[in-house]
Design goal:
globular; 20 helices; binds aspartic acid
Length: 442
């Protein structure tokens, strides 16, 4: 095929086509008992794609954070931008949780579940649950109030860099190294700065190369997810999903409100009336990556590339704001945790009072910050939120079935939020972000 034709098709259209094909392949396989075929021959391409993205995520975090910090040139500017970034991140998270709480209190999806369904769900998910619970409760049992601070500090950078879930530790190291590079004489720091600069550029180029493979990778990921979720009994999935339909719809409505109202308004108000449509057009490949991989970390390379090269946000801002955001700013996850908690309470027939709902705002903020940017992390951290309002953590059995699908959606919101905040910070730091006609729109 003539490659120039493929090149002219916008990336998001290519990815959407991959998704459509993935759904078709998944349905076909489920309908004809070809699950094994998909697992053996198609899913591996999705896994490879995901691995490639994760492969470059960690060096990219290091390189982009260090070059971002160094280009700020002085510590006062760094702390001002850092403070502003954290403040906006927490604000968007609190908005997301409050929105989630409002939606779930209006729709009350927990009251749609019959007693029989509740029992059935608990039984069906009991096995997987024990594993998750014991892992999580170990962490929670030993956790003092300052555990999160302890967890942030690495004692071995090689170990920290070996696990996507420890991204925060790598960020810690990168920030310290960046600060140190600002403080030492330029003659000494230059070689290392050039090194990270070159690494940064090269990795962003790797993103371009990997994205050539995106349509196939996404097709395989989606087909793989469909077969995994359905297992050997496709019908049962639909039954469970159907019984959890109101809950899933509630989460989706919350997420949709964030996408349709909250971020566009924030961008319009705080990024010098930057057009939300342009914003979404520029970041759509990053959103689609988030959706198909369910991992903010895996989507991060694409997010950085889109925000820098298609939204025109400067490297110093995106290099700092985005890696941090992928790790701690999870509006979608926190909204989902709030909805899930109230849903589980409703299903148990428990009414959460106002102060308990305030507790949810507080703990879901922390739990979303603590959730790793990998698939399914938000579900595990949900246990913390359930504990905080005195609900039995086995309640997560009720919400496990549609979790993968909701994970895809909340990750999309997580990544959108990072991009929106980067745009706002860029506009406030640099006076402006590049205007539409200055950036090649893809
Ligand atoms: N998968 C989400 C992310 O990477 C985290 C979660 O499970 O909510 O952003």
């Amino acid at each position: 095929m003539d490659m120039s034709v493929v090149k002219r098709i916008p990336l998001y259209v290519q990815i959407l086509a991959g998704m459509g094909l993935g759904i078709a392949v998944g349905l076909l396989a489920l309908g004809n008992g070809l699950q094994e075929f998909v697992i053996d021959w198609i899913k591996p391409f999705g896994t490879i794609f995901m691995k490639l993205l994760k492969l470059i995520a960690m060096p990219l975090v290091l390189a982009s954070l260090i070059t971002g910090i160094v280009s700020l040139k002085d510590i006062t500017r760094l702390s001002r931008m850092g403070g502003k970034t954290l403040l906006i991140y927490i604000t968007t998270t609190v908005i997301a949780i409050s929105l989630g709480l409002s939606v779930v209190n209006v729709i009350r999806p927990g009251e749609f579940l019959s007693q029989a369904t509740r029992e059935q769900l608990k039984e069906q998910y009991a096995t997987g649950l024990h594993e998750k619970l014991s892992k999580a409760s170990e962490t929670i049992k030993n956790a003092g109030p300052l555990q999160f601070l302890e967890d942030m500090v690495p004692e071995n950078i090689v170990l920290a860099a070996s696990d996507t879930r420890m991204m925060l530790q790598v960020i810690f190291f990168a920030v310290m190294l960046g600060i140190a590079l600002i403080l030492i004489p330029a003659a000494k720091s230059q070689p290392l700065i050039h090194f990270f600069d070159a690494l940064n550029e090269a990795i962003l180029k790797m993103v371009d190369i990997i994205m050539l493979f995106a349509p196939v990778g996404v097709m395989a990921l989606i087909a793989g997810v469909m077969v995994d979720v359905a297992g050997n009994n496709p019908a049962s999935v639909w039954q469970v999903l159907y019984s959890l339909l109101m809950y899933s719809i509630t989460v989706m409505i919350g997420l949709l409100l964030m996408l349709v109202f909250v971020y566009p308004s924030l961008i319009w108000m705080f990024a010098k009336r930057f057009s939300p449509l342009r914003f979404y057009r520029a970041i759509s490949p990053a959103q689609l990556m988030a959706f198909s991989t369910s991992s903010s970390a895996a989507a991060l390379p694409v997010t950085i590339e889109r925000v820098e090269e298609h939204l025109g946000v400067s490297k110093e801002v995106s290099g700092f704001v985005l890696p941090l955001g992928a790790t701690i700013n999870m509006d979608g996850t926190s909204l989902y945790q709030a909805v899930a908690t109230v849903f589980i309470a409703q299903a148990y027939g428990i009414d959460l009072n106002f102060s308990q709902q305030l507790t949810i705002i507080f703990t879901a903020t922390l739990a979303s910050i603590g959730s790793a940017a990998v698939p399914g992390a938000g579900l595990v951290m949900l246990i913390i939120v359930l504990n905080s309002v005195g609900l039995d953590p086995t309640g997560i059995a009720l919400v496990m079935a549609p979790d993968r699908l909701l994970d895809m959606m909340r990750t999309t919101v997580n990544v959108t939020s990072d991009c929106a905040v980067a745009t706002m910070i860029a506009s406030s730091e640099n006076g402006r972000i590049k205007m539409d006609n200055e950036i090649a729109m893809n």
